[in-house]
Amino acid sequence: MTITGKALAGWLLAVGALSVAGALSASSARAEEGGFVCMEESQEKCDHENRNIDLFIRGRDAFDAGRESGDLNEARRLALELMERKDQRHGKALMEFIYVQVSLGVHRNFVEAYRWIESDIAAGTKYTRLDLGWVRDKLAARMTPEQLAEAKKPQ
Predict the structure, then answer these.
(1) What is the spatial distance between Cα 22 and Cα 43, in angstroms, rounded to a whole number?
(2) Residue 46 CB burial class (10 angstroms; 0-12, 13-18, ≥19)
(3) Measured between alpha carbons, how far is 102 from 136 in angstroms, rounded to an integer?
(4) What is the pLDDT of residues 91-109, one digit of tens each?
(5) Sign of the Cα pseudo-torsion (155, 107, 139, 129, in order)
C-alpha cells in the first residue's frame, strides 16, 4: 500500500487532533475530580498563589467597607500581609487604592494615616503611580494644627 503526501498529512492531522482532544479530556477529568488543576511547578506554589489571591479579594472587600466606614485599617493590614508574602503587585496596588482614599480624607483617623505615610516614606517604599509626598501633603492640608503636631510626635 502506498501512502500519498496528502493522505499522510491528513493522517497526521487526525492523530494530532486526537492527541489534543485526549489531553483536554484528561485535563477536564482532573479538573472535575479536584475542581482545579494546578499549572505551577508544585502544589505548594499554587497554594501560595491562591492564598495571595484570597488575601487580595479580602483586601478589596475591606477597602470597599473602609471607604464606607472611614476605617481603612483592615484593608491596609491585608495589603501589608500581601507585601510580606512577596506579592508586591497585589499588595502595592491595594496600598495605592488606600492612599488615594487617605488623600481624599476618607480614613477618619488623620493622625494614624499620616503616620502610615511617614513610615512608608522613611522605609523608602515606592509606588508606581503614586507620590507619597503628594499624599502626605494632601492629608496634611485637611488636618488641624493639633492633629499635625500629634502625628509628627515620635512614638
Answers:
(1) 23
(2) middle
(3) 9
(4) 999 999 999 999 999 999 9
(5) positive
CA quadruple 100, 105, 108, 114: dihedral sign: positive
The torsion angles phi and psi of 127, rounded to 5 degrees, stand at -120, 140
The Cα 67–Cα 103 span in angstroms is 12
Residue 124 is given by DSSP the state T
pLDDT (0 to 100) of residue 12: 43
Amino acid at 51: R
pTM of the model: 0.72
Amino acid identity of residue 34, one-letter, is G
pLDDT over 70 (residue 30): no
Instruction: List the one residue out of 123, 73, 4 whose CA is nearest residue 81.
Output: 73
